[in-house]
Write a structure and sequence with these properties.
The chain is mainly alpha-helical. It is built from 16 helices and seven strands. It comes from Halolamina salifodinae.
Length: 406
């Protein structure tokens, strides 16, 4: 039925959320309450939890070390990036998951459309797996540690010639060391468990993708919608600033920061989040321009609504289809960027990310290819899954685009 095919671009969000006569929506109040709770926990962690913990080697420095969370024998200390990641998940839940729950008819329509695309469903399952294991895995799995006694152990079902100076943990058959379940994906040249590194790398990838995308989408959406609605001089000034920032060499700035402060995943995420929103701003602006000419926007203007309310409650929600599909392109872009920088030796070598592991194994490809291939395959399938999911979301959220392309 026609009513079942209601999309983001046709939804009266004020009616759904019950905010027709209110400036603050339930979604914003939930975000505000969740943010306040995160700030309280972060303040407690900063002022009352003391000491320093190096998860990479499992050592604590200072006699008063207490991890933020102490689980089954080892501590998990929450970092600045973890707090930003938690906030990005809160924002995602308040303005993506909750709106779908508030409109079950629209959600069921999207789900039916998604189920028709089998590659997208497989991709969704893979990304859920990566997300769950990435978030929960490091909490219950010890951080990877170097152990030269087990260096270059092959993965399960593979073997390596014992002519190389290694101590074989598994059985030796015909002079070849066999892989074991103790190290299902093998070990690196310094004896770190590749399975543990990949699990921790899932969390790193999710943090990079969610936090950097949060920054880009927030700034890009604000600039794009304001420029489209205000028009005139405001539009001209904002778009010329976008042109200036697009011509700015972000890579050179990153190298300068790398030279001054050293490699840091936090600086990488913040820097590229702050200097990569220009494309999103233009994309959102092009879609918002069409919405500003709709009759319902003119009706809201005649009702005396403020500019802030029109942009927040009508322009932004009704350009959600372009924003959501853009997210599926931004997340893999940032994940791949970190891997590229790590491979070039420009990343933080102290973090257990997929890119760092790929770079660590490039000199051992001749006799230990699994060190590079294992994280490389996880990176490849994750990027591919985002692309499949993005295409499916675009077809579901914007059927007109699919019809025009046929």
């Amino acid at each position: 039925m026609a009513a079942d095919k209601q999309t983001f671009d046709e939804v009266d969000w004020g009616q759904i959320t019950g905010e027709s006569d209110r400036e603050l929506s339930p979604n914003f109040l939930i975000l505000l309450a969740g943010t306040a709770m995160l700030l309280l926990i972060a303040a407690f962690d900063y002022f009352f939890v003391t000491g320093t913990y190096d998860a990479a080697i499992g050592m604590d420095f200072g006699n008063q070390y207490t991890p933020t969370f102490d689980i089954i024998g080892w501590g998990y200390d929450v970092t600045q990036l973890d707090w930003l990641f938690a906030f990005s998940l809160l924002l995602f839940g308040a303005y993506v998951v909750l709106p779908l729950y508030q409109n079950p008819r629209m959600s069921s329509y999207y789900w039916r459309e998604m189920k028709r695309n089998r590659p997208a469903m497989v991709s969704l399952g893979w990304l859920i797996f990566i997300f769950v294991i990435g978030v929960l895995g490091p909490v219950v799995i010890a951080a990877p540690r170097a152990d030269l006694a087990v260096q270059y152990q092959p993965p399960v079902l593979l073997s390596i010639d014992t002519v190389y100076p290694i101590r074989c943990v598994g059985p030796v058959i015909n002079g070849a060391c066999q892989g074991t379940l103790q190290y299902p994906l093998g070990t690196t040249g310094d004896g770190k468990d590749i399975f543990n590194i990949i699990v921790y790398g899932m969390q790193i990838s999710m943090k990079i993708g969610f936090i950097a995308t949060l920054i880009v989408v927030s700034i890009g959406t604000a600039v794009g919608t304001v420029a489209a609605y205000a028009g005139g001089l405001v539009d001209e000034v904002l778009m010329r600033y976008v042109d200036v920032q697009q011509s700015f060499p972000t890579f050179i700035l990153y190298l300068l920061i790398l030279y001054i402060w050293g490699a840091s995943l936090f600086l990488f995420v913040v820097l590229f989040g702050l200097f990569a929103w220009e494309g999103t701003a233009r994309y959102v602006r092009s879609n918002a321009l069409a919405k500003t000419e709709e009759e319902y926007i003119k009706a809201v203007q005649l009702s005396g609504a403020s500019t802030y309310r029109i942009v927040r409650a009508h322009i932004v929600p009704n350009t959600a289809s372009s924003i959501i599909t853009d997210i599926t392109l931004l997340v893999p872009t940032f994940i791949l960027a970190e891997a590229q920088f790590a491979f070039l030796g420009l990343g933080d070598s102290t973090i257990p990310s997929w890119g760092v592991l790929i770079a660590a194994g490039r000199s051992d490809l001749a006799f230990a290819p699994w060190i590079t291939l294992a994280p490389g395959m996880f990176l490849f399938f994750t990027i591919l899954a985002f692309n499949f999911l993005g295409d499916a979301l675009l077809d579901a959220l914007n059927p007109e685009a699919e019809a025009e392309s046929e």
